[in-house]
C-alpha cells in the first residue's frame, strides 16, 4: 500500500548494517519514489541501489559538507521535491549525519519522516542480557579531550549504557571503564552484527578486557555496559 503524502517530505531511510536482507519493503519503495537521494558515500549507496535496481539521482551529504549544504536541500524540499537521506549503514542521524538537516527541515515546516529499520544499537542492547527498560545511548566516547570527564560523569549512571566503539580502541575503553567503574561491572561486546562472523560476548569489564587483549577484535563493535546498580542488583 502506497502511503506517499502529497506535501514534500524528507525521508530518513535506514539501510542494512551488514545483511542486505535487512532492508524493509517500505525503505525500497521510498527510495524508488523520491526525486533525489542524499548519501553519506555515493559509492556505498550506489552498490545498495544497484542491488535493489533503483535508479535515482544521488548526491553526497556527509559530515564535511552538511553545514554548507543543509540550506540548499531544505530549499529543494520547499520547491516540492521529495528527498531521502541515507547513511552508509543503519539509521541516518544515529552517530551519522542527519540531525542538522532534520532540524532545518522542521524549522522550515517541511514534513520529516524517519522509517524504522536497521540500526546497530538496538540488537546489541537487546542481546546483551542487560536491562532494557531504561538505557542511554552514548555513541562514541570522545577519543581525547573530554574522555575522562565523560567516563567520570557516567560512573553513577543507573541505566544500561550503549557505546559505539572501534576495534582498535576496544581494549583501551574496556580497561579504562573497569578502572573507573569497577572490574565487576557486567557488559557485553556485540561484534559484526547481522554479518557472517557475528558474535556477542558477555562478561565483566575485566573479563572482556582480558579476552580482547588475548584475541584482538576485528570488525564493527557495540559495547553495552550495565548501570551502577547492575553489580549489587544483578536482577
Ligand atoms: N547509523 C548507524 C546505526 O544506526 O547504527 C551507526 C553509524 S556509526 C558511524 C558506525 C558504528 O556503528 C560502528 O563503528 C559500530 O560501533 C556500529 N556498527 C555499525 N554496524 C555495526 C555492526 N554490523 N555490528 C556492530 N556494530 C556496528
The H/E string reads EHEHEHEHEHEHEHEEHEH
Helical content band: 25-40%
- Under CATH, the topology of the largest domain can be stated as Methyltransferase, Cobalt-precorrin-4 Transmethylase, Domain 2
First and last CA, distance:
44 Å
Shape: elongated
Given the structure, what is the number of helices? Answer: 9
Unreliable parts: none
Can you tell me the CATH architecture of the largest domain? Answer: 2-Layer Sandwich
Q: Would you tell me the overall average pLDDT?
A: 95
Rg, Å, rounded: 20 Å
Return the domain count.
Answer: 2
What's the number of extended β-strand segments? Answer: 10
Main attributes?
2 domains, Cobalt-precorrin-4 Transmethylase, domain 1, 35% helix, Methyltransferase, Cobalt-precorrin-4 Transmethylase, Domain 2, 20% strand, 10 strands, alpha/beta, five-stranded parallel β-sheet, 235 residues, five-stranded mixed β-sheet, 9 helices, elongated, binds S-adenosylmethionine
